[in-house]
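Hey, I was hoping to borrow your eyes for a little while. I've dropped the whole record in just underneath, so have a look:

——
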Amino acid sequence: MPFITIAGQQQIAKKQGDNATLNITQFILANVPDLGGEPATRIESIPSAGYIVDQLSVTKSGYVNTNQVVYSLVMGSNIGNYQFNWVGLVDDEGVLIAVTYVPLTEKNKNDGAVAGNTITRNFLISYSGIQQATSINVSAETWQIDFNARLSGIDERERLANLDIYGHEGFLSDGWKVTGSAGTYSVAAGIGYVGGIRVKNATEQQITTNVFPNEIWLNVSLQGDISDVTAFAEFVIDTGPFADYVDGNGIEHYLTKIAELDASGAVIETREMSYLKDIKSSNSKNLFDVSGDENDIVLTSKAGTTKITELNDYDEFSFIVAATNTGVVTIKIDGLADTPLAGVVSDTQIFETALLTVRYAGGAFYIASQVNPKTGNGVLDIGKLYTDTVDISRSGEYALDGASYSREAHSIAFAIVSASSNYIDQVTKDSSPIEYGGYYGSGDGSTTFTLPMVGGEFIRMFDDGRGIDNGRVFGSWQEDAIRNITGTVSGTHAPFRAPEGAFSVSGTNPYSVSGQAGSLYSENLGFDASKVVPTADQNRPRSIAYFGKTRL
């Protein structure tokens, strides 16, 4: 960016002290090899003659205010041909007053039927009392102002304002949400903010990869020309972490991870959600800083938002839970009285990292919703068994196949299942995958946990002391007791051939087998199915095989 040189600063001060006029007369254009960055010391000199490509008189000057003046240079199509990357302002005493480094710029003049180009350069010098020192009494006209710089400043101010609201990244609803499996993925249409830049995915996009595990990142930048800039977003499919950077053209790039792909290619949502919902409604107030502790939550409206001064029935407030509760919970908003969160009566009922929306009614808060912001799943659905008519695991869905998952990535699910009685040591679970298939496992003991395995099994309701299915514990497996039995009877009083031990003889009444009336030793047969060896096809009720899944 332009800067006043130390020599220029001293010259301005001298002219002001002497009550003399600073007379800036010329633009100097130069092409300096290996120019590098502008000196932080502001010590600069005019390039050697071999690098100077042109010296041109100031076209026009004007003042913006008492402390800002503008010097303009118009280079018509009759000037050229050369390139320049250094521009300086020089006064009538040959003192270099100000300098700017610019990208290498072509200046061409008319060549027969080939038109040259016209370039305008403007220097805005800010210095206390500079208008009086230069004796410039003409107001700067609009064409003299560098609107490119001014518009760039507007873009940057808007980016910084978005950054204050959404943070480094924030996605609205399903915008840029990745779904799919096994190498083929869809990225949903919608809106997100990355690095303060608003990026819109106008239509659903498809991406593919055959490398697992992997990550999907979004690389966002503002790019364009002198007339406009546009937000660009491109996918980076690679394992990070990746940091923001500035490319060789000086364009700033902002990166965020929107999904992880596990070893099987399943999607793990990593988008950071923005929860600015319907801010037009007076009932939706959800911009809070969260403090206090796990049971006494303190919400403070963020800077720049309206403080909450009263609670009205059906007002809703949303925030990210900072810590899993260990007992009953109260919520205090902007200095108002502590208010109980009804229905939360024991520990592990609201969860760290969950997006909690509470609704006020009749002197208490009630949970309107509590979701995992990474998957969008409601907390009440996490860990539940459900069947599906398709064998595709969509985002947030996981097959109950015993697979291992990260405790950190699925912290809410882990908090729920690890508190349950069907969470057991992984060594025990692995010792008999069939007998302990209904249990969650402790994984590696520190960073992972494993899901139950329900494939091929029927589900029976837990007896819980009712006495119908005595001796069962929650999550336990029970072997079937229905077997295929083969045997033949030929003629009255004929011997019945069956596996040894399957039948016992008692009583004296006739017994009928397979429609043949007769008796075996004139006595009844008692049947013990447990003595029969199972065959490959166990007798089962009629059924359809659907997918057993859960949500995390």
Q: What stands out?
A: The helical segments are 6-17, 130-134, 147-166, 411-418, 426-431. Residues 147-166 form the longest helix (20 residues).
